[in-house]
Amino acid sequence: AQSVAQPEDQVNVAEGNPLTVKCTYSVSGNPYLFWYVQYPNRGLQFLLKYITGDNLVKGSYGFEAEFNKSQTSFHLKKPSALVSDSALYFCAVRAYSSASKIIFGSGTRLSIRP
Amino acid sequence: EAQVTQNPRYLITVTGKKLTVTCSQNMNHEYMSWYRQDPGLGLRQIYYSMNVEVTDKGDVPEGYKVSRKEKRNFPLILESPSPNQTSLYFCASTQWGSTDTQYFGPGTRLTVL
């Protein structure tokens, strides 16, 4: 069965410091992996995805994520955090062989202090 | 502008009173889906549709119905709402293929008293 784990409910980082939001997954076969961001009172917005190829994926707003097959992880990173990065972040996975099933993690609230 | 719209955005109702939340997309996407978002549980899929007249259950379908008579519309129906269906609901659509990116609506906050 597919699953996604975001082990941290909340991550607190000072502005200007690097940030990491963790995600691990379990899926049969090759995964499609996604990160979405949700700002207050808004729907989810796509940040980046891993389908195949380079393990380091670059996305919107300066975010990037590294696919690590041996550790089944897809952590979201940014070298220098901004206060405007404060939001709720969701990791999601879909099995390559499944045309329908996308599983979302429980979400991590990122708080950037000035 | 490419978008997914939902109506209403906010709804307070009482137990047992049938309601429909509409969802419409203007991107000619084949795949549409409904999710509910609850604190600590993330997004859970309620129903999805691969195309017109093709729908299937997600992880939490109990108490919900959907229909897909047209490609652009995917309404969510609660025949007899109960308080445990109080939640934030999102509709999403995608062109299944190389991009796989889902586009989400703004959400509908439902309260069932």
Describe the structure.
- The complex is a heterodimer of chains A (114) and B (113).
- With 114 residues, chain A is mainly beta.
- Chain A contains no helices and twelve strands.
- In chain A, strands 2, 5, 6, 10, 11 and 12 form a six-stranded mixed sheet that branches. A four-stranded antiparallel sheet of chain A has the order 3-9-8-7, with no helix packed on it.
- In chain A, strand 5 (31-38) and strand 6 form a beta hairpin.
- Chain B is mostly beta strands.
- Chain B contains no helices and eleven strands.
- In chain B, the strands form two sheets. In chain B, strands 2, 4, 5, 6, 9, 10 and 11 form a seven-stranded mixed sheet that branches. Chain B has a four-stranded antiparallel sheet with strand order 1-3-8-7, with no helix packed on it.
- Chain A binds chain B through residues 6, 9, 32, 34, 36, 41-46, 49, 51, 90, 94, 99-102, 104-107, and chain B through 4, 31, 33, 35, 40-45, 48, 50, 56, 90, 92, 96, 98, 100-107.
What's this model, at a glance?
The complex is a heterodimer of chains A (114) and B (113). Chain A has no helices and twelve strands. Chain A is mostly beta strands.
For the biggest sheet of chain A, the summary is: 6 strands, mixed
Structural class of chain B: mainly beta
Largest sheet of chain B: 7 strands, mixed
Largest inter-chain contact set: A-B, 23 and 25 residues
> What quaternary form is this?
heterodimer
Alpha carbon gyration radius of chain B: 13 Å
Please state the average pLDDT score of chain B: 93
Query: How many DSSP H or I helices of chain B?
Result: 0
